[in-house]
């Protein structure tokens, strides 16, 4: 049994808190949010204690801290929790500033703490099976990867402004998925566009992108992103090798299809957003983290994975500005 | 909060007990099985108390009893539970003897108890959506229904011998599904075959069947059954109307598909058996029954539904013997 | 090069005539229709000579006669053509009267003529591949077959009245397909319904049906028919064996699918009727018949196949009247 | 009736010659190939006359010339044919040298000849329907396009050496498809890889590529290419707009799918190469060109379209060398 505290009780923190409260090998001890009402609501829903301050949690007998607060607080909380001897599961991104991420690592790396970054898609049953089948050699050497990732609709512009931009906020998941499938990346090229909402442009961000990656292995990868998708949360992967292709597709609420005079085999819209689409992934993520804490094993998504995805986002941003392919490492 | 006891702790009783233990509005008070070890194991897994006798449960402060014991005990337990003032959720079939089912009804009907029969497929999200869309008029008047229902493999012959035969044990779900979609049935014709295992034939049963139903509405329906299916638990429905068709298909563990030189778009085998395939249905079934008990509303699958499905099984058996279309009611 | 005459220049005769005119190893010498204008139009479109009388064709130097006239003339023309030494490709059904079919056979069988019945679906590339894969053992022993066959809309009632009824006119193709896949049939049960058009009922026919067949091999089969299908010409087969299932599906004009807020992966309506749906089958049928004539080999669809399909239609009609399973031979 | 000559009787020239010979409104007068045996074989198969020299054809009474000779001869033959007053259908690419393409245009543009470039994919029924539905507004404003284009296997290295490289030989079709769907292109970035055959690398070419285009409209596009594809000729398009997505998929020889213990719904490999995959497109292309010649209307794929696709290939090559996004015009 691993005793947890959850820092940050917004939408995603609340979801994690509920998952922890129901997990057979986890116990949710404390919850905290800078907005006391948010924490109170989650405390009531889960039976956890509401902490008044972060320090109360760091001093308490919890083994693990799940950080789901706003991005600008992630790194500070992560460092403090590690220094307080806790295991940490931190939502992505670790931070928006790569230099800070590296400086913090220098400070904490000797502690050997269990630190995991919330790249939930690594735990999606379909993406996980796709990767396992690549590694089992079903398609031979991996040559090309195509990642489709479209949000159903844009977040509020207020969020966009503090998000670090599309690459650090949204594509970061796809950068991680590319690394999960292909290994480290040698070069990045990015193209951005303003297609969805002029307010996003005014806020200094793009709302659609197409990115090309070259892996150190020689494999190449395309990512396509949009902040809008009419038919739901579009999350697909294609992986090509010398002997075949593996695809992982979208999820729907039912298997019903409709046939009539204007269309046939018409299926439901795909599940609408990350909490619905990745429900099993979030549960498996927690499960894996509990295993790591209990058994002292290395998480599937490490601090370095968080750092590398951010480095790819930075490289994409540089490519967007210069038009140039950016080499890494 | 509805307090439950579970009678019968075999595979399906255990599953229900675990679902009840996790349900936010249910409390699992007691479990019982004639095999004390089976009950003890479920008691340990759920935190429920193990009853030594059924009487202990009938006398206890439980509001609802879930009957998942062997078929020959269903009806007696149901009657006793109703007479003890409990709400009852009883696994199918209520009994193998239609006369007894009717006699028991005569005895308990005045009590107005909440009695639900475990036709779990009515709660499958896809089948439920298919029915709702028929009723919303998407395909116009319902004209034809095709139900495909194949088990991945045959049960032990010892089970076959006490099962009441394929129609009462397996097709009973499909008879209920036909009634759920089309309403009451006016005529039945059945063809049986021995295709899977000679031991089933020796036990006096068939292992595959094709059945035709005529509904009172004029709609017609085909059911195909087999005790064996190489690719998993095959559970599909097609509903045709004057303006189109609705299909509900099989479920798979992932969305991954494989393309190579010998096949393309090859998907996973379908989920293998009823507990995996109908997980969401069993949860929704419990949820609905808790609603009915709390609010005093009528269950979606009533004692009469259990009775009618059994009557269709009997008619199918008669048709199998005579070769004749059998008219009902 | 095989020289042909076409008897009957309606919709299907015209199609065959055009296919023959373009065939590299066939030559269309003559066309005839009792309606002279129909023959004239086809003669003009194909460059064939218009015959004034059937006798002119029987006396001419044609090796093969394709009979696509009205059903009541098929058998007489077939016998006369065989007696004139021609090879014959005759549209289905040979006749509506089984006794006449048998009597004619007694008269012509000694001649050893090449006689083929127009069961075009045997030549459909998908159905042919499905059968070949069954015979190659991909699914092990064949156990169950499900044939779906729905016309997009009913023919004129005037046609219904002379058609011999649904079983002899429409289901006859499905009876033949069942025999093509399973071999000879031992028992038939049929259920009919009036769902599409009251005028069809007034004309003494049904407009929808569900039929069960038992093959001599022990395999069982369901056929579902309707004179109406909102989404096009619904032509599908499922074949189940101990090791798997083979499906053959509908055809669409394009591969385009549409995804939006109300539906995803919505495809085109299926091809609308037999000439579009079975274009490659009709071409392959002619090709096979030319081979048979040139090489003296036996056709894939024989006079006996025509006779047996008609016998199944008669048995279905008897079952429809009596409610009884009808045993054959 | 339009009288044609075909210049070049290799694989694709032969296919065009056979299509012309069967076309109801075309007459194939002459065929020519620098390899006399190749021309003789096509002459025999089609009944056309074999020309000894190109001049013989230019002087003859043919209205239209189809150029399917080796790429290095295309432009010279095109100019000479136009100057001889012929309509021209020229296989892609017009030439490998953009300056020559422009110089030749300056020389012939005043003649107003009917000149069409063989971008066969514009005539594919599925791609054509996809474009028509975009233009009809089904998905709203077009925002993103993803083009998948993989050959089943690499051509001989000897061919690679004279092909102008992957972009001018293979991607040129995809560049044209991008323009067909999105209009003119403003910027190009290309990444190449050596994944398939070291001999291609030695020959100075790449064998896989991922390309990003920005259209003048603001829409963005990804193309992925490979000289190898295990499951056949992979030809797919996805077009995203503000209101939905349209997909066009691969083609298979049958609709059969296979379900067993290791995979379900497994379909045939896709059609293996361009002549099989694009059979209906090549027929429709000829049909359209005949229309243009007969009616004096503008072809759907013009000299300028050929020029622009080549300019995109050149820009991609420059991007490949410099790593930079290349802006056009």
Oligomer: homotetramer
Domains of chain A, number: 2
CATH superfamily descriptor of the largest domain in chain A:
Dihydrodipicolinate Reductase, domain 2
Distance between the first and last residues' Cα of chain A: 41 Å
Report the CATH topology name of the largest domain in chain A. Dihydrodipicolinate Reductase, domain 2
Derived from helix and strand composition plus strand pairing, the structural class of chain A reads: alpha/beta
Share of helix of chain A, binned: 40-55%
Total number of beta strands of chain A: 15
The total count of helices of chain A amounts to 12
Q: What would you call the shape of chain A?
A: globular
pLDDT under 50 segments of chain A (min length 5)? Answer: none
Sheet of most strands of chain A? 7 strands, mixed
Mean pLDDT of chain A: 97
SSE string of chain A: EHEHEHEHEHEHEHHEHEEEEEEHHHE
Q: What's the CATH class label of the largest domain in chain A?
A: Alpha Beta
Biggest interface: B-C, 40 and 40 residues
Report strand order across the widest sheet of chain A.
12-11-7-10-9-8-15
What key phrases describe this protein's structure?
homotetramer, 329 residues, alpha/beta, Rossmann fold, Dihydrodipicolinate Reductase, domain 2, seven-stranded mixed sheet, 40% helix
